[in-house]
Design goal:
Blueprint: E1 19-26, E2 29-37, E3 40-46, E4 55-58, E5 63-66, E6 68-73, H1 75-83, E7 85-86, H2 93-106, E8 112-117, H3 130-137, E9 142-146, E10 152-154, H4 156-161, E11 176-177, H5 179-191, H6 195-211, E12 214-221, H7 228-240, E13 245-250, H8 258-265, E14 269-270, H9 305-318, E15 321-326, H10 329-346, H11 348-354, E16 357-360, H12 366-374, E17 378-381, H13 383-389, H14 395-400, H15 402-406, H16 411-417, E18 420-423, H17 434-442, H18 453-460, H19 462-467, E19 485-488, H20 494-499, E20 506-511, E21 514-516
Parallel strand pairs: 1-4, 1-5, 6-12, 7-8, 8-9, 12-13, 14-15, 15-16, 16-17, 17-18
Antiparallel strand pairs: 1-2, 2-3, 5-19, 9-10, 10-11, 19-20, 20-21
Helix pairs in contact: 1-6, 2-3, 6-7, 9-10, 10-11, 13-17, 17-18
Pfam families: Amidohydro_3
Protein name: Amidohydrolase 3 domain-containing protein
Organism: Geodermatophilus normandii
Length: 519
């Protein structure tokens, strides 16, 4: 299951005949060296005993680790946020509107795209509306995604571009769109991105990932979040230049042709952001009991269970990993019911071999965790969600109440049960920040729910390789492992970095044995 990722021993541009990283700290052991050839680690030991190599990189005592894997990214949207209108840091409605007004003056013509606004801490007590946008954008189409990217506020001009959007589920006269109306608006907005804009955004994301020591990204594409053209272009870009690898996922049901693109592009899986529900912030995550702050609302399931059964069946029969976006407990339960039906039909070994994965899985009780363990599933989780919205006064508590909020993101329960974990950011929902994600997984806002430091680091590195079925038995720093390595700007040991919550900068990234200096 290495679809979408360049195999570790595949040739890439400017690969040296072999490479020796010398005088590095590996884990907690200083004075080590690592030899790389053919895109894989071939030797590791004391620097004094290192073999000769065609190229030598002096570590000067710096910490060497496996490169990070961000297991959930939207590359084009992330790049557009990096290079355009990013509202994550705006602390009030007035501040956000001022940023939009400035973007109108400086952004190139076309649909104005922005992301990241979050009204939960704003003093005005409300989010952006269509009237707010119209006042500053005039007759320009504008699409501004809320931080969870499961809702957005749009201008009147954008509504006018999408026939029938006002009659779709989730439409609202104030321009705050959810559900089907939001998906239609998003498709229109991102569908207007030119090939040149897309290439620049994707390149910006890959460059930022390299700067952060991320060697691989799992791209969560799909008809409701991007396009086949967008995914195809990203995979080509990642293959043609030194830098982070990209594993592609396509979130579309098999009954709608989802497996066809997986086969055509050699993708890692059929799923990822296959939306079985929405998000807490937009009140669209599917719950078994109503939201605390909207007693008449419990979110909604996007599919009938029979559709999910058919998808899991088709993927399992084809030996393809299926993946599902599921956040609320009702959505998690529905997906697991579907997987269970296929276990009964096709057998446990066939299901376990596929490592079907759940994205986010923020509400998972003991029964759900046990079913994931028994069926060999992967939990693709985002620790920054808990860091941003967890805690007794956070958005989770506001939406769900204190008890349900405290049970969200049960990382320790998943790890202790033996469920495979892969950490990601869901960028641009939260920024790519691998060290921050590791520390957030450890420093969970619910006591006892966090991971042990080395378990968190493993989930952020080796966990991503396991999630695509490409891990090595000896681990990520052993002969035979992919030569995806990061050299950090610190002489501290890995234990010290984890214990002190350090966030060292990446001095050098090596992917498939190729030093990455620029993109």
């Amino acid at each position: 299951m290495l679809g979408g990722v360049t195999p570790p021993d595949s040739p890439t541009a400017d690969v040296p005949p072999d490479l020796l990283l010398t005088d590095v700290t590996v884990g907690d052991r200083p004075g080590r060296a690592v030899h790389v050839a053919g895109g894989r680690i071939t030797w590791i030991g004391a620097a004094a005993d290192a073999p000769r190599a065609g190229q030598v990189m002096a570590g000067e005592g710096a910490l060497l680790t496996p490169a990070f894997v961000d297991a959930h990214v939207h590359a084009t949207a992330t790049g557009l946020a990096l290079t355009g209108l990013d509202l994550h840091s705006r602390s009030s409605l007035a501040d956000a509107v001022a940023a939009v007004a400035e973007a109108v003056r400086t952004a190139p013509p076309g649909i104005l795209l922005g992301t990241g606004w979050d009204e939960t801490g704003w003093p005005e007590g409300r989010g952006l509306t269509r009237a707010d946008l119209d006042a500053v954008v005039g007759d320009r189409p504008a699409y501004l995604a809320r931080v969870d990217v499961h809702s957005a506020t749009v201008s009147t001009a954008l509504l006018d571009l999408v026939p029938g959007i006002r009659d779709l589920p989730g439409a609202s006269p104030d321009g705050q769109l959810r559900l089907d109306a939001h998906h239609a608006a998003r498709q229109a907005a991102y569908g207007a991105v030119t090939a040149q804009q897309r290439a620049a955004a994707q390149a910006a994301t890959l460059a930022e990932a390299a700067r952060l020591g991320i060697g691989s990204l799992h791209e969560m594409a799909g008809p409701e979040v991007s396009s086949a053209e967008d995914l195809r272009a990203l995979l080509v870009l990642a293959r043609e230049r030194p830098g982070p690898r990209v594993a592609g996922y396509w979130g579309e049901l098999a009954e709608r042709g989802g497996l066809e693109l997986v086969r055509e592009l050699g993708l890692a899986g059929a799923g990822g952001d296959l939306f079985c529900d929405g998000a807490f912030g937009s009140h669209t995550a599917a719950l078994s009991a109503a939201y605390r702050d909207r007693p008449g609302t419990a979110g909604a399931l996007r599919f009938a269970t029979a559709q999910l059964v058919e998808h899991v069946r088709a993927c399992t029969a084809a030996g393809v990993q299926a993946g599902f976006h599921c956040i609320g407990d009702a959505a998690v339960g529905q997906v697991l019911d579907a997987v269970g039906a296929v276990v009964a039909e096709l057998g446990l070994p066939a299901v376990r071999a596929c490592r079907h994965r759940l994205e986010h899985v923020e509400m998972a009780g003991a029964e759900a965790v046990e079913r994931m363990r028994a069926w060999g599933m992967v939990a693709s989780v985002q620790p920054a969600f808990d860091a941003t919205w967890g805690g007794p006064s956070g958005m989770y508590a506001e939406r769900l109440g204190a008890d349900r909020a405290a049970a969200c993101n049960p990382f320790a329960d998943l790890a202790d049960a033996g469920v495979a974990l892969a950490l990601g950011s869901d960028a641009p929902v939260t920024p790519m920040d691998p060290w921050g994600g590791v520390h957030a997984a450890v420093d969970h806002r619910t006591a006892g729910a966090g991971l042990r430091p080395f378990d968190a680091f493993d989930a952020a590195t080796h966990g991503g390789w396991h999630a695509i079925g490409a891990e090595t038995a000896a681990g990520p720093l052993a002969p035979g492992a992919p030569a995806d390595l990061a050299l950090w700007d610190t002489d501290a040991t890995l234990s010290a970095v984890l214990d002190r919550r350090l966030r060292p900068g990446c001095r050098q990234l090596v992917v498939a044995g190729t030093p990455v200096r620029s993109l």
